[in-house]
Design brief:
Layout (H helix, E strand, L loop, with lengths): L2 H4 L2 E2 L4 E2 L2 H6 L6 H8 L1 H8 L11 E6 L2 E6 L2 E2 L1 H5 L4 H4 L3 E6 L5 E5 H17 L8 E3 L5 H13 L3 E3 L6 H11 L3 E5 L2 E3 L2 E3 L1 H12 L4 E5 L13 E3 H6 L10 E2 L3 E7 L7 E6 L1 H14 L7 E4 L6 H13 L3 E5 L10 H9 L3 E4 L1 H10 L2 H4 L8 E5 L5 H11 L6 E4 L33 E4 L12 E5 L14 H8 L8 E9 L5 E6 L3 E4 L2 E4 H9 L4 E11 L3 E10 L7 H14 L8 E4 L13 H8 L14 H15 L1
Parallel strand pairs: 6-19, 8-9, 8-10, 9-16, 10-13, 13-14, 18-19, 18-20, 20-21, 21-22, 30-31
Antiparallel strand pairs: 1-2, 3-4, 5-15, 6-7, 11-12, 16-17, 23-24, 24-25, 25-26, 27-28, 29-30
Helix pairs in contact: 3-4, 7-8, 9-10, 12-13, 15-17, 21-22
The structure holds 5'-O-(acetylsulfamoyl)adenosine.
């Protein structure tokens, strides 16, 4: 094979997939787009054949906007489709290669994973967990997080995984909203060689919520913890005599598979409800299509199970395809900045799925780190979580993909459950910085405020025009919020994604970023309002306005504009205290970059803080018309304060 066939060819419009990649790709016939568009229901129905159903559905779709039901009457079990189905051919195939931050390695074959999952499912059952009970999982990236999720799915208990770096208070809020009585956690975990005291956070957090009856604790680090009598039990003790077979619960296609809390425009996170049938069909299909997943692949998604990517593209999608996956517990720079490349070399990873913020960090550290390792096993690389700037895309393609691996920039959300806009690596010509085209079966558009499609090159709002199988069904316990957030923007049947975007002349989508009050810090979703309500709960703070400021490395960082209560003096100590307070109350990933004290904030005449104006100020952009503010002079004052920070 000549050099040429092996390299992505640069032409006027972008990077065409290499010929040999196209030849072997699972999807390489562009006709798939036409077929799916002509009859999306048949397209999804055809793909539903990849899932094993106890009972076939009667109808594919019932669409009563904005409510959809998919594969109606179908019965299945998600865990069965991730594990049992693989036993025929892949019983001894490695399902999980887990690597601890300290270098420990634990492998599970499909058969072993199934046994562990069944044993844990029986533990849960023994504790009285029944179909429909929501179980909260608060674990770091250790095998037990996957085992717990699948065990819940096996017995029909929806899981709610809370990102391990969240504070105990954030955990308690989510437990309270879900009305969850059982919690799975661990003693501690390792982050850059330091022990994070997870169980302590639990004890602090749930003291106040009073809901949790039972806590199952994985012994991971061996750090000292207190076990509360009658409430806390050790995972390993509970597992000891537990039976290793457990019949999967027969679930309805529309039964809830899991809840995933995500930040929105109000102070309270919302529980995004995903159901079973549609979710399994699309995560299985898109994992196969977008990552061109084959039996021999070693697939590594670096996302955490505390976020949707860890659900769809670490657990349910890959395992339902019988994939071997790599899970890494720790930080990318521990013990050194080549840890990822070292992992790829040792485990012979073929597919890497990571985030722009990581890519930009690697770029800053320099190409000499990956160059220390043989990463030539890679054949496809992906990106998710925020817009990837063309510079980072090109660096990734060149230095990690060796100019040879297709790059899939995948746009999607907690609410969509599945990848919505992304190249198909054996078909799509990619353009650095563009997520390219909606995947087959998805209809997306860029609309203006009135719901009209904008002209190519113009900014507008990203919209999804037709229902899709893994769409959010509702906001847990808050149907009103579901409607308000996603549907009332236009006509109650067009999904409002909350992102700004534009389409170019070729119909390619370029995602600009959030247009609502959601901040994406290193791909983590944080709500302005959620953050503000924490700041104002501090005894010194009267008011706060929190916005995202663009950042080269992290996408966005948090800028907090704070008005102190009268009589409280501004000081650097107080800044530090508030930073620590926010960190303690949300989690270390949400540390504010700047706290700016100000006697006043830009407000409407009715007293509402104008985040739009604050955001412009933080980003040193034109805030537009400010004449309707209570006191327009505030803007100049804040601009000056922000400028001073930048030059400091
Ligand atoms: C998967 C995930 C969703 C928000 C979404 C966007 C941003 C995600 C991309 C992206 C540009 C991408 N779920 N986003 N992927 N922006 N290009 N490829 O991240 O619910 O946590 O966040 O993330 O703003 O609305 S999420």
């Amino acid at each position: 094979m000549g050099e040429k066939a092996n390299q992505s060819q640069k032409d006027i419009t972008g990077f065409r997939p290499p010929e040999d990649f196209v030849r072997n790709a699972i999807v390489n016939d562009p006709d798939i787009y036409r077929r799916a568009e002509e009859d999306p229901e048949s397209f999804w129905e055809e793909n539903a054949g990849g899932i094993e159903w106890y009972r076939k559905w009667d109808r594919v779709l019932e669409w009563e906007p904005p409510h959809s039901k998919w594969f109606i009457g179908g019965k299945l079990n998600a865990c069965y489709n991730c594990l049992d189905v693989n036993l025929d051919q892949h019983a001894d195939k490695t399902a999980i290669i887990w690597e601890g931050e300290n270098g420990d390695i634990r492998n599970y074959t499909y058969k072993e994973l199934l046994e562990e999952v069944c044993r844990f499912a029986n533990v849960l059952k023994g504790m009285g967990v029944k179909k429909g009970d929501i179980v909260t999982i608060y674990l770091p990236m250790i095998p037990e997080v996957v085992i717990s999720m699948l065990a819940c799915a096996r017995i029909g208990a929806p899981h709610s995984v809370v990102f391990a770096a969240f504070s105990g208070d954030s955990l308690a809020t989510r437990i309270g909203n879900a009305n969850s009585r059982v919690l799975i956690t661990c003693d501690g975990y390792s982050r850059r060689g330091k022990i994070i005291e997870q169980k302590n956070k639990v004890d602090d957090g749930i003291r106040s919520c009073g809901l949790i009856d039972q806590v199952i604790v994985v012994r991971h680090m061996g750090n000292e913890i207190t076990m509360k009598d009658g409430r806390d039990i050790w995972w390993h003790e509970a597992m000891e005599n537990s039976d290793s077979s457990c019949e999967p619960e027969v679930m309805d296609s529309e039964d809830m598979l899991f809840l995933m809390y995500t930040s929105g425009t109000t102070g309270k996170p919302k529980g995004i409800v995903h159901t079973t049938g549609g979710y399994m069909v699309t995560t299985q299909t898109t994992t196969k299509f977008v990552f061109d997943l084959k039996n021999e692949d070693i697939y590594w998604c670096t996302a955490d199970c505390g976020w949707i990517t860890g659900h769809s593209y670490l657990v349910y999608g890959p395992l339902s395809n019988g994939t071997t996956l790599v899970i890494y517990e720790g930080a990318p720079d521990y013990p050194d900045k080549d840890r990822y490349w070292d992992i790829i070399e040792r485990h012979k990873v073929t597919i890497l799925y990571t985030a722009p913020t990581a890519i930009r960090t690697f770029m800053k550290w320099g190409a000499s780190w990956p160059q220390m390792h043989d990463i030539s096993t890679l054949r496809l690389i992906g990106s998710v979580g925020e817009p990837i700037n063309p510079g980072a895309w090109l660096w990734y393609h060149e230095n990690i993909g060796m100019g040879r691996c297709p790059v899939v920039d995948t746009w999607w959300q907690t609410e969509t459950g599945m990848i919505m806009i992304s190249p198909l690596p054996g078909i799509t010509t990619t353009k650095p910085g563009s997520a390219t085209l909606p995947i087959p079966g998805i209809k997306a558009a860029v609309l203006d405020d009135k719901g009209n499609e904008v002209a190519p090159g113009q900014d507008g709002y990203l919209a999804i025009l037709d229902p899709w199988p893994s769409m959010v069904r509702t906001v847990f316990g808050n149907e009103e919020r579901f409607i308000e957030t996603y549907w009332i923007k236009w006509d109650n049947k067009t999904y409002f994604a909350g992102d700004g975007a534009k389409k170019d002349e070729d119909g390619y989508f370029w995602i600009i970023g959030r247009v609502d009050d959601v901040i994406k810090v290193s791909g983590h979703r944080i709500g302005s309002a959620e953050f503000e309500s924490i700041l104002v709960s501090h005894p010194s703070v009267a008011e706060a306005g929190v916005v995202g400021k663009e950042d080269e490395l992290r996408g966005e960082v948090i800028y907090s504009y704070v008005t102190l209560k009268s009589g409280i003096e501004e000081s650097n100590e107080l800044k530090k205290e508030l930073t620590a307070y926010a960190e303690k109350n949300i989690g270390p990933f949400a540390r504010p970059r700047q706290i700016i004290f100000s006697d006043d904030l830009p407000k409407t005449r009715s007293g509402k803080i104008m985040r739009r104006v604050l955001k412009a100020i933080a980003n040193e952009k034109d805030p537009g018309d400010v004449s309707t503010l209570q006191d327009p002079a505030v803007v100049e004052m804040l601009k000056e304060k922000t400028r001073m920070l930048e030059s400091a």
